[in-house]
Amino acid sequence: MNNTPTLYIVIPCYNEQAVLPITAPLFLNKITSLINKNKISQDSKVLFVNDGSKDDTWQIIKSLSNENIHYEGITLSRNRGHQNALLAGLMEAKDRCDITISIDCDGQDDINAMDEMVDNYINGAEIVYGVRSKRATDTFFKRFTAESFYKLIKWMGADIVYNHADYRLVSSKVLNEFANFKEVNIFLRGMFPLVGFKSTCVYYERNERIAGESHYPLKKMLALAFDGITSLSVKPIRLITGLGVCISVLSFLLIIYALVSFFSGNVVAGWSSSLIATCFIGGIQLISLGVIGEYVGKIYMETKQRPKYIISEKTFDEDK
After folding, report:
1. What is the pLDDT of residues 84-105, one digit of tens each?
2. In what order do the strands lie in the sheet containing 99-102?
3. Domain count of the chain?
């Protein structure tokens, strides 16, 4: 490429007043370093997306934007969740830059991996996934559940990069095509591989959170995992169908056995077996209805076609 690309680092923020003053200068230093190395243009920015924070996050973002031209910010009208906030930033940046790098605000992802990401883009990659090389900083439980999730969603048929979250470089070419994905229920780490284009991976080690508390407790992590599976794969429905067929075959064999026993005069009243069979079938039916209901609910939300986010304020001029 003849010209240096314009980079936007897109950072979703939710109640990050404790960590933002610490990590914001780190992102600015990285932008400045890449500019000095002539890898990106002078017009590159750090774009913060305030996801309806209840603390002083938006005030901090506005102050940063007044202090340095490389800082910019947008705020959503209400909390829409990490995925929608990240999407808002990417869609806002796509027409103003050549490449974006999305990263969380907490400082856990290695910002030095951005150099290699940009190098890969210059060498022809349109998407560069940041992938954790190991999970040494995680507890055993978090490591086990996270790795199990990636294996499960892969088994479910979704095309997802193992141990990749939302730290990635994406070109504006890819983002323009991604804008055609109109679904309301989004799981970005599983959707970008669907767009195609040349991609590669950059491996890095994740650090401890610099300050503040994690906004992804177990409950939210499980919800994200379930959303990811049901948004990208219909295999759970097919598994239910297969399970229903198996139970139907077993039930048919049981009916034959009961008839043979009846005509043979060997019928013995069995309260335990009847109770077990009833509870088993009832449990399977409730689980099946729950999974099917989740898909029906997603269809319901899709048909409404409500906006995934609404931007209420920006720190920059719309015409720039």
Report:
1. 999 999 999 999 999 999 999 8
2. 199-204, 127-132, 164-171, 99-102, 7-13, 45-50, 71-76, 311-314
3. 1
- Whether residue 121 is contained in a domain is answered as yes
What is the residue range of 210's domain?
Answer: 7-232+306-314
pLDDT tens sequence across 129-138: 998 877 666 6
Residues facing residue 45 across a β-bridge:
8
How far lies 12's CA from each of 51, 61, 73, 285, in Å? Answer: 7, 11, 10, 40
Say what the pTM is.
0.72
Residue 253 lies in a domain: no
Residue 41, domain member (yes or no): yes
DSSP 206: P
E strands, the chain, in order: 7-13, 45-50, 71-76, 99-102, 127-132, 164-171, 199-204, 311-314
- Residue 123 belongs to domain with CATH number: 3.90.550.10
